[in-house]
Amino acid sequence: MVIMIIGFVLKLFFSCTPPPPIEMQYNSINITGIDNSGRFMGSYASVDTMYSGAVALKLTLFDSTHYYYAFTISKVLKSLSFTPAMAFSVDESYIPVNKVEQIIITTLFDIDEDVKAGDDISNLIVYDTGGDFELYQNMNNAIGALNRTQSEASGSIAMVLLKPIENTKAQFNVRVTLDTGNELSFSTGIFTIITQ
Amino acid sequence: MKLTFSILLQLVCFSLLAQKLDIRNSEFSFSLGAVETPMEKFSANENLDFLNYFGTDPEYVGYAVVNLGYKFDFLSKMSADVKLILMSDLVPDNYDISAYYHLNKTIGIGIGSVLNKVYISGFEQFQAQNLPNYYLVDDNSQQIKVYDLGLYLTPMFKLIRSDRFQTTLKFDLGLASFLKEESVFFHKRKLGNERLSYHYNTNISFQPYINPKIEMRLQAFHINKTSVGLLLNSNFYYSKRSMNYVRSIQRWTSDNEINELVKTPKHAYIQFEIDFGIYVKW
Fold first, then answer.
1. Residue B16 belongs to a domain
2. Is B5 contained in some domain?
3. CATH for the A24-64+92-194 domain, from 1.20.140, 1.10.238, 3.10.129, 2.60.40
4. Which domain holds residue B193?
5. What is the reported pTM?
6. φ, ψ for residue B194 (rounded to 5)?
7. Contact predicate B82/B95, CB 8 Å
8. How many domains, in total, are found in chain B?
9. Which residues of B121-150 are buried (b: 16+ CB within 10 A; e: fewer)?
């Protein structure tokens, strides 16, 4: 009886703190084109046609195994125990255990006279923080955004191209190097470019 | 409790100070006034001129004010005049405070400070018109509140000094500046990725002004040494004013910043006020 009471009290005490972030492993990558031609970036819908001066990409890294074990185990453990003693429900958070170290973007089509197919265009890409009242930031900040605690079992960033494309087609390859030494690579589909 | 104690302590301190300063002939006044503040406008050029958007609504130049005044004489030849001015928000954040040395019964010389709140409204129109190939990310109407601080010297003439009716003329000569204010605009290129930010930081720049004032008091009745009456105050302010600023333009990222000091033309600025109310003198 005494042990149970101590157990209840300890459980109650620890239930008052938000649960720690769930660990996830970045093991998959996806990249889509997004519309940045309007006043605000349309980062929630993917497109296959973009204006030459408004080429933007959304990079998503995620844990493809998440739904198979972490989430289920967490739910099962909760069903065997007490739900947290919170006055409000606390959203789950996720922390990547393998951190992003580098992002390299290569164009697979000519962009203009100076930038040819196969060139590394990482220095022509900037990161959109998602704030409408902010300027873009360099890609080091994008890496920081991917490595911090996420609200889902994935991390996403939006990136824009500094140069207008003087071609009717565009395609990109993105390679993400992780601190484990692994590399995630993805080539986008071919985008149709509306030249202005 | 703390606040009550603090107020009581300050009242006691003020009372002790008043005894030392020999405060006498106190007068409290309450008046309602109408103010017209026409500002000369220029046609738009390549630089934003905030004073082209002067006022709560650039189409209207008038507003109403409530004045709370307290005057008193102190020491042997000194007097003070404290006026708090409330605009439509009823916040007493405008003032006109002055102290006078009376050379004789008719003439005095004073020093004072005045703080007026003004509004600059709708100046986002300039940004939208000046950069037609860019969206203004926030296209809501913008308004900034700017304080106009003045420091002045003033001769004072008591033209009529009868028991029932008094008229006083003052002629403020001063320097005034709009205090620092800032405003930021974000732009996004139409059909393009490019983003711009325009950051305006206004500068302090004192410019001369004149402000003749007339004050009239008509005693209605008195009980013992306390008299009650009507007052009529009016003043006319004239100055040539500008609002210069440092403009920082950032393109794409905050790393690419261009700073520039922009000097804007001087606008003729008139402020005419007339207010009417009551006073209690003891």
1. no
2. no
3. 2.60.40
4. 25-281
5. 0.82
6. -60, 135
7. yes
8. 1
9. bbbbbbbeeebeebbbbeeeebbbebebbb
Chain A / chain B CB contacts < 8 angstroms = 52
Does the distance separating the beta carbons of A135 and B252 come in below 8 Å? yes
Shortest Cα distance, chain A CAs vs residue B255, angstroms: 9
Q: Does B164 touch chain A (CB under 8 A)?
A: no
Q: Count the helices and strands in chain A (H runs, E runs).
A: 3, 13
Residue B66 lies in a domain: yes
CB contact under 8 A, B186 and A132: yes
- Long-range contacts from B90-95, C-beta under 8 angstroms, 24+ separation: B90/B66, B92/B68, B93/B117, B93/B147, B94/B65
Closest residue of chain A to B195, computed from CA coordinates: A135
The answer, yes or no, to whether ipTM is higher than 0.90 is: no
Q: Does A135 touch chain B (CB under 8 A)?
A: yes
pLDDT tens over chain B, length 282 residues:
454 455 544 544 555 565 566 788 899 999 999 999 889 989 888 899 999 999 887 666 688 899 999 999 998 899 999 999 998 888 888 999 999 999 998 999 999 999 999 999 999 999 999 999 999 998 888 899 999 999 999 999 999 988 899 999 999 999 999 999 999 999 999 999 999 999 999 999 999 999 999 999 999 998 888 999 999 999 999 999 999 999 999 999 998 799 999 999 999 999 999 999 999 999
